Amino acid sequence: MNDLQNELLSIIRDRLKIKINDTAEDITEKNIFGHEVNFIPLDMVYFMLIIEKKYGIRFTEEDFDSPEFYTIKGISGIIAARMNA
Q: In CATH, what number is assigned to the domain containing residue 30?
């Protein structure tokens, strides 16, 4: 798990106040709407807004359609690509 993934998990825990099943193997590759993270759609909206503001990026419609958009690992990859563009 890299620093960006840890930051995203901290946002979920600390800002969104969502308990994460840390016992799940490689939580960063689990679907965030699954039982390990247990997001509801409104959580995703808040999460996206926090990320966009914190990292100065914008998510696109293509991001929303990508399966990577639904894991911490995938979202961190999208953020890193936008920040390095």
A: 1.10.1200.10
* pLDDT tens-place values along the chain, 85 residues long: 789 999 999 999 999 999 887 666 788 999 999 888 889 999 999 999 999 999 999 999 999 999 999 999 999 999 999 998 7
* CA angle 56–14–71, rounded 5-degree value: 65
Total domain count for the chain?
1
pTM summary value: 0.89
For 17, the domain range is: 3-83
Q: Measured in Å, how far apart are the chain's first and last C-alpha atoms? A: 22
Q: Give the contacts of 14 (CB within 8 A, at least 6 positions apart).
A: none
